[in-house]
Amino acid sequence: IRFKQWYQRRVRELMAMVMEGLQGSESRVRYDIIGHSGENPHISFVNRDLPPDNEKKRLDVLEEMHAHSQFCWSGDHTVDALSQAVKHAASVKADDRIVIAFSDANLKRYFINPKKIGSLMTKDPSVSVFIIFIGSLGDEAEQLKRVLPAGKSFVTMDTKEMPTILQQIFTSTMIQ
pTM above the 0.90 mark? Predict the structure, then answer.
């Protein structure tokens, strides 16, 4: 349970960083924040048409994430969630379509084949898909990174590295 609580806190911290970082760029960047749990592969926390535009609304998003994580069933919908995210991004009219998934790299526990994740990451060439492992039991995240498409996965246990990782993602997407 301690790892799960640490991971959930890390996700909320990162989502706060993302929302803060994107504030003021709504005319150029539209984004959704969608989560998943053992109960549901698609939990909408932020809709691209209504991004939180002040601290209170961003806090409400984080509290909603926390409340859901407290009361949901255990389980994992990583594959379904990633598949839906790619389909959703492909359906949106945009210059660039990017899906960034955050994961605890705990795929073995749920018998998720990393090759399935890799195939979803390259399924639609109109969507650039990345995964950032922000937690790991042992070296599982590093093992997964070696199996996934090159340059499409990152491992960090330190939120201070996140701006650099996100910059790498956005830069690599614009170069394509």
Answer: no
